Amino acid sequence: MDSPQSKTARWFADEVHPHAASLRAYLRGAFPGVRDVEDVVQESYLRIWRAQARGSVASARHFLFRVARNLALDLVRRDHRAPVRAAGDLAALDAADEAPSARAAAETAERVALLAAALDALSPRHREVVILCKLQARSHREAATLLGISEKTVAEHLYRAVHRLGEELQRRGVESFGR
User: Fold this and answer.
1) Helix (H), strand (E), coil (C) string for 79-105
2) What residue ranges define each of the domains in the chain, with the CATH number in brackets?
3) For the chain, how far is it from start to end, CA to CA, in angstroms?
4) 42-67: b or e for each residue (b if 16 or more CB lie within 10 Å)?
5) What average pLDDT does the segment 12-23 reach?
6) Is the pLDDT of residue 20 over 70?
7) What is the pLDDT of residue 12?
C-alpha cells in the first residue's frame, strides 16, 4: 500500500509537473517585471504540494496557475511599494559616468529587439532551451532537469535553436550579432 506522501508525489508528477513549461511561459509573458520566474514556480509547487496533502486541490492546473498568478502579483506590488532611500550628496561620490551614449543605447535596444523577434520565431521548446542555457547560463543538466528531458535532447534542441536563430537574424538583415 502506498504511503500518503508517495501518492502525493505520484499525483504531482502526473498532474502538476506536465504544466511546468506552460506555467513558466505564462509567467514570463504576463509578468515581465518579475525577475525570477523560477522562484515563483518553485513556491507555487510548494503550495500546491501542501494543499494536495490536505486534500484541497480539485484541479491541479487551475490551482497551480492561480497560485503562481497571485504570487507574481504580490511580487509586482511589492516592487512598486519599495521605498526610495535617500543616497545623500551624490555630487560628493567619486563615480565615473559609465552610461552609454545615446547612439550606443539605441544600437543596443535595436539588437535586443531583433533578438527578441528572432526568439519569438522559435518553437516554444527551442525558445525555452535557449533562454535557460544561453540567457540564464544554466548547464545542460540543469535545463534537462527543469524541462524533464534528457541532456542529449537539450543539446539537440540548443543546436537546432541556435542554427534557426542565426537564420532568422540573417533573414532580418543582421550579418553578425556578436560585438
Assistant:
1) HHHCCCCCCCCHHHCCCCCCCCCHHHH
2) 4-81 (no CATH), 105-171 (1.10.10.10)
3) 61
4) ebbbebbbeebeeeebeebeebbbeb
5) 91
6) yes
7) 87
Point out the least confidently predicted range of 21-25, 66-70, 100-104.
Answer: 100-104
Average pLDDT score over residue span 162-167: 89
Cell of 127: 525558445
Burial class (CB in 10 A: 0-12, 13-18, 19+), 26: middle
SS3 readout for 32-90: CCCCCHHHHHHHHHHHHHHHHHHCCCCCHHHHHHHHHHHHHHHHHHHHHHCCCCCCCCH
Q: Minimal CA–CA distance to 5: which of 36, 50, 35, 41?
A: 50
Comparing 65 with 109, the larger pLDDT belongs to 65
Cell matching residue 34 = 518579475
